[in-house]
Amino acid sequence: MKLQILIVEDLPYDAELMALRLRDEGIELEYERVQSEEEYLQGLANAPDLILCDWHLPQFSGKRALALIREMGHDIPFIIVSGGIGEEAAIDALRLGANDYVLKDRPARLGEAVRRVLRDWQLRKDHEAAQEQLRLAERAFQNTAEGITVTDRDGRILSVNPAFEQITGYSREETLGQNPRILKSGHHDEAFYKGMWHTLVEVGHWRGEIWNRRKNGDVYPEWLTISAVKDAEGETTHYVGVFTDISHIKEAQNQINFLAHHDALTQLPNRALFHERFSHALMHAKREEVSLALLFIDLDRFKTVNDTLGHPVGDQVLLEVSRRMSQVIRASDTLARLSGDEFVLLLEEETSAQHVGVVANKLMQLFSQAMHIGEHELVVTASIGICLYPNDGDDPDVLIRHADRAMYEAKQQGRNTYRFFTKALSEGAFERLMMENHLRHALKRGELTLHYQPQIDLETQQLQGVEALVRWQHPEQGMIPPGLFIPLAEEIGIIGDIGAWVLHTACQQVSAWDREGFIVPRIAVNLSVQQINREGLIQLVTDELGNSDLLPERLELEVTESMLMRDPDLSRAILSELKGLGVKFAIDDFGTGYSSLAYLKLLPLDRLKIDQSFVQDIGRDDNDEAIVKAIIALSENLGLEAVAEGVEEEGQAQFLKAEGGRSAQGYLFSRPLPADQLCEAWRKKVLSNVE
C-alpha cells in the first residue's frame, strides 16, 4: 500500500528530491506538494498518512501548519524538513507537535526519520486502541446486569462487579480472596460439583442451572456459565463466572403450572392434573394389585341457577360445593373439577362397593343441605356415577367414560342419586369396534385428507404459514374430526403410518402451491408420541424434504409437552438431530402439560402455541388472561415466538397484540380448509386488500 504524503514546500525540486530519497530506501509513496495555507487545508482534506513540511515558506510557515493541525484535531505524523531551521526553532516545532526534524543538507536521515515516526505513531495508535478496549471492557464489567466473578486458578476471588454485589448481597470487599463456595446453598450434592469441575477441566467451560444462597440466607436459582482463561501455553490462569438470577422465570413457571393445572375458581386440580394423578394411581394399583374407585359428580339443574340467578351466584355455588366436598374427603383422595359443574373424586383406600356406596350417600347428604348465597337459599343436588378398578376397566379414559355413563344413568333415574357402572351401560363398545376396523383401512382406501389452517401475523395480517390437520371422510358417517379418531389410532398403533402420510402429503402440497405461485412460508405438521419413539423418523423427514424439494426451515414439527416428558432424554436427542436438518419446532397446546421449564430451555424450540382453552376465555376470565400474558412473557424470555390457537373474536386478537403476541390462528381468520379452497380464499383476500 502506497504512503500518501503531503509535502509543504515552495521549491518543486526539493519536494521531488524528498520523494526520490524515500523511494530509494524502498518506501512506496504518492505525494502532493502545497505551499500556501489554502492549498494546505485542501491537502489535509485528502487525509494524508504523513506531512513533510519546510519551516520557512514565502506564503506559509511550518509553525502555522502545526497550529492548523492542532486546531482541526488531526492526528497526522509531522516531520519538519528545512534547510535553515535553528536549534531553538526545532525545539519550538517539537513543542508544538512536530514528531521530528531533518535538515535538507542531511537527506540520508530522512528515510530513517519517516520510518521511526510512522512506527511510533502506529504504536501509539495501537496503545490507544488497546486502552479503549480496556476501558470498554471495564464499562461492560461494571454495568452489565449479569453478575461476574473472576478467580485465580485456585478459585480465590480476584474481582466481582456491581451486579454480583446486588444479586448476592455480598460487597466486593467481603468476597475478595474468598472462594465462590461462600454462595453454596446446600441444594446440590458433591457429585454435582464434581461433574461441574470435570466438564470445566475437560471442555474449558460449564453452563447450567444452579441454586446459590445470598448473604441474607435466601436461596435463589441462577443460570451460570464458567469459563477457563488460558495463557499462551494453554495453561489455565483464571476462571470467569457469569450468572443471571432466574427467580422471575421460576416464578413464572410456577404460576403457569398452577394456573394450567388447577381450576381458577375452586383451586381444585383440573382435568389435566387429575388425569396425571389418576394415571399414577392406576400404575400403583396394578403393581400392588389393589382396587380404586372413581365417582363422577354432576350438579342437578345447575344451568337453571346460572340462567335465573346469574353466573356470579353460580360461581358461589360451585365454591360452596367444592368446600363441602373437600371437608369430608381423606388426604389420600383426589377431588378435581373437570369443567362447568362436573367433578370427579378418586378413592385409593377402602374401595369396596359397600364403602364407596357409603361415601356417595355422605355426599348426597352434603348436597341436600341448603346453602345461603347472598340473599338466596338454595338446595343443589347432584347425580353421581361410580366405577371400580379393575372390574370396570384399567385405563383412565375408559374408567372416566364408564363413570360418566353411570352418572347419566343416575340422571335418567330422577337425579339426586348414584349409580354403579354395569356392562349394560356400555352399549357403545360395538360401535367403537366397528370404527376401529374402518380406521385400520382408511389410509389404504384414500379416506384421509388434509385441511390447512392459516397462521397470521397479527401486526401485518400476512400469512406466516399453515397447520396441516388430518380429517377422515368416513364412507357412511361423513367427515370425522381428528379428536374422535386420532386417540383411537394411537391406541391401536397405526398413528405412525398416518403421521408419515400426513408429513408426505403436507410437503408435497407446499411444493404444488409453489408451482402455482401460491407461496406458503411454513407448513406445520403434528408429531405423535409413537413417531418420536419410532426408529427412522429422522430418515423419514430427510426423505420427504428431499422428495418435495422443500427447504428444511419451511417445515415446522409440532409436539406436545406431555409427549416430550414421557422420555425427556430420547425426545431431546431426536429433536436435536432433526434440528440439525434445519427444521423448526413448536410446542403445541402449551400450558396444558406438566413439564419442567428448566428442561424446555434445553430443547431446540422455535415457538410456543398457546392452547385455545386459554385464548377462548380472553375477556371473560382473568385467570386465563393471566396465563396468556405469562406464556407470552415467558416465550420472550426464552427467545421463542408465541402463537395463539383458537382465536375467534377480534377482541381476543387485540388483547394478544397488545400483550406482545405476534402470531395467531383461528376461525377469526379462517377455518381449516382443503388445499384448493385455501389457495383460492387467500388469493381473494390478497386481491381485496390490494383493491
Give an account of the 3D structure.
The chain is an alpha/beta fold and 691 residues long. Helix 15 crosses helix 16 (482-492) and helix 19 (537-548) runs parallel beside helix 21 (568-581). The longest helix is centred in the N-terminal third of the chain and has 36 residues, at 108-143. The mean pLDDT is 87. The strands form 5 sheets. Strands 18-19-21-22-23-24-25-26 form an 8-stranded mixed barrel. It has 4 domains: 3-139, Rossmann fold; 144-245, PAS domain (Beta-Lactamase), CATH 3.30.450; 263-427, Reverse transcriptase/Diguanylate cyclase domain (Alpha-Beta Plaits), CATH 3.30.70.270; 431-690, TIM Barrel (Alpha-Beta Barrel).
Provide keyphrases for this structure.
691 residues, alpha/beta, Rossmann fold, Beta-Lactamase, Alpha-Beta Plaits, 4 domains, eight-stranded mixed barrel, 26 helices
